[in-house]
Design goal:
By secondary structure, the chain is of the alpha/beta class. Helices cover about 35% and strands about 25% of the residues. The strands form three sheets. Strands 11-10-7-14-15-16-17-18-19 form a nine-stranded mixed sheet, sandwiched between helices. The chain has a six-stranded parallel sheet with strand order 1-4-3-2-5-6, sandwiched between helices. Strands 9-8-12-13 form a four-stranded mixed sheet. The longest helix is centred in the C-terminal third of the chain and has 15 residues, at about 475-485.
Length: about 500
């Protein structure tokens, strides 16, 4: 219970459910509203007053912070303040915080006679999540009805975007111009059209392990920091993560990768791939499937130490030949080939030759990491249609540590006869280049990072089908940065960047 003048109005959902029978027995008609209410405004007040007129007792359930999926930085006001603000309204009788991401469970608990939504929810075609239909079904299941108010509407998101410092200054300026060119509905429609794209994803499998520890302090006898082991979890990383990101947006995805027979992790991998991803595994007998074991401070998610199980470089010739033969027979079936080259020995010259020679549209990301620094460069690919690199990777590829990125991008695209390229720059955003329209600098939309592992993979995965579908470069950069902003709030590859959260974030950004 909150200690506040309106605290008596604020209950648990369970507490409210216990008083429902007595209210109904006394002839009271119960009305329920549900929402985030991040910034209480006149539209909310009129909506709630109109809802109260539909019955005798008004319950308002509010989404808890953890379930608000409007992107980084939201909600601006925490659940305690949001509940107190709504409870301060005279027309509201009771307020409860919902432990579920939708109103469905609250509806089933509270069994309202009338469930009230605003008129902007009345068009089912505008529902990005499909949850409004679920709410309507839940209301009908408890014998209630749905009512849509017809009051004046405002957008909390738009008000927050305009009058609060929700975004960094450079992002605010970028979004102001971008909103004049694009609507969220147009962008979402274009992303939904990607479902038809047939995608082949190929590259190195990596199993990412996080071993969570608590540092114990410096050893008095050695120059090391001991840590107490707590627990661990494993993620499908590398090309597996790229495939899972793409699999949310494209229905037909095939994954081609190589596993080590000494410890393949095949069952784990199969359990952690989206069901619409068809996997073709090749096996090398001389090594294990690559594993990157990170020891992580449990409290801060700071990486303290890493051990890599990588095996030998270079694919055995018989395995390489099997991969080449398979690609020759299947690569023509796909609209887009996405290559994630982490430099761990799978993608050799013969395979690269087929990828570059036979792909209809080839998107390539060649990564520099501690195991291959300076030896795994984009220049080992003779051609590509889309290249996505970070700043270190493009500087290594061009042997230029200080030149302007614009010049380096042009040099790489000319060398690879590539028409689209991106340089991701971490907290500085991304630079997108197209040879027919020039350069577009896109700032980051959020600096709230939980874990930066895999942000580049998410950017590359989400933008590759967009570039293949000829999205304009500024839209590519916008979507890549939005995907990156969502990804850095996910620990490891615990989950992918999914369509609905991305759609909601796009809507939030463009209000």
């Amino acid at each position: 219970m909150l200690h506040h003048m309106n605290g008596s109005k604020i209950k648990d959902v369970k507490e409210l459910s216990e008083i429902v029978p007595s209210l109904k027995n006394s002839g009271k008609k119960i009305v329920q509203c549900h929402g985030v209410f991040d910034l209480l405004h006149p539209g909310h007040i009129r909506h709630l007053e109109a809802a109260k007129r539909e019955g005798d007792v008004l319950f308002v359930t509010i989404t808890k912070d953890v379930h608000v999926v409007k992107g980084p930085g939201r909600p601006v006001f925490n659940e305690r303040l949001r509940a107190e603000s709504v409870a301060a309204l005279e027309c509201v009788d009771f307020v409860a915080l919902s432990d579920s991401p939708t109103a469905v469970e609250c509806i089933k608990e509270l069994k309202p006679h009338v469930y009230v939504k605003g008129k902007d929810y009345s068009a089912e075609k505008d529902d990005l999540t499909g949850k409004i239909r679920d709410e309507e079904d839940a209301v009908k299941s408890v014998g209630g009805k749905v009512h849509f108010t017809d009051e004046i509407t405002f957008s909390s998101t738009k008000l927050l975007n305009t009058h609060f410092d929700v975004y960094p200054e450079e992002a605010k300026n970028f979004l102001k111009e971008f909103r004049e060119k694009y609507s969220s509905r147009d962008i979402i429609n274009r992303l939904q059209d990607l479902k038809k794209t047939r995608v082949l994803v190929i590259g190195d499998t990596i199993i990412d392990e996080y071993h969570y520890c608590t540092p114990l302090g410096k050893s008095p006898k050695e120059f090391l920091i001991p840590a107490k082991y707590l627990y661990e979890e494993a993620f499908a990383g590398g090309i597996l993560a790229v495939a899972n990101h793409i699999g949310g947006f494209c229905d037909n995805v095939e994954l081609v990768t190589c596993l080590g027979m000494q410890n393949s992790y095949e069952q784990f991998i199969s359990e952690h791939l989206k069901p619409n991803i068809k996997a073709k595994f090749f096996y090398r007998p001389d090594t294990t499937t690559p594993v990157k074991r990170r020891f992580v401070d449990h409290a801060l998610l700071t990486k303290m130490f890493q051990v890599c199980f990588l095996g030998s470089n270079g694919l055995p010739e018989p395995v390489s030949q099997d991969v080449c033969n398979y690609l020759k027979s299947t690569i023509g079936d796909y609209d887009l080939v996405v290559v994630g080259d982490y430099g761990h020995g799978f993608l050799g010259p013969d395979i690269i030759r087929i990828l570059c020679g036979r792909s209809r549209f080839l998107a390539v990301n060649v990564q520099a990491n501690s195991a291959n620094m300076g030896f795994n460069l984009i220049t080992k690919y003779p051609r590509a249609d889309y290249v996505c690199l970070d700043e270190i990777e493009i500087r290594l590829a061009t042997h230029d540590n200080s030149g302007q990125l614009e010049n380096l991008l042009v040099a790489i695209t000319q060398r690879l006869d590539c028409h689209r390229a991106v340089v991701t720059r971490g907290h500085m955003g991304s630079l997108v280049y197209a040879d027919d329209s020039g350069f577009f600098s896109v700032p980051v939309f959020s600096r709230e990072a939980v874990d930066r592992i895999g942000a580049g993979d998410a950017y590359f995965a989400i933008t590759s089908p967009c570039v293949a579908a000829q999205f304009h470069p500024d839209l590519v950069g916008f979507l890549g940065n939005a995907a990156g902003a969502l990804k850095i709030r996910i620990v490891g590859n615990r989950s992918s960047v999914e369509p609905v959260p991305l759609f909601k974030y796009i809507t939030t950004l463009l209000k």
